[in-house]
Specification:
This protein has a four-stranded mixed sheet with strand order 1-3-5-6, with no helix packed on it. It has a two-stranded parallel sheet with strand order 2-4. By secondary structure, it is an all-beta fold. β5 and β6 form a beta hairpin. The termini are far apart.
Length: 67
Amino acid sequence: MRLQGHRVVLVRMGNNVWLDAKVTLLKSVNTPSRAIGGANTVVTSVIPCSVVAVASPSRLGRTSSDA
């Protein structure tokens, strides 16, 4: 296993980012501050600030302004 090589990909996480169980971030996906990824979500693009992303592939859910 140690001779197989590794591929390193940059992922940037903002402040107060919450990722639930089994969240998958695809290559070079950046998450800004206050983003939330729900359980079993596959994040394929940037999650906007203060938005909950759910499903596979991710869909944008509620924002912090929704009540």
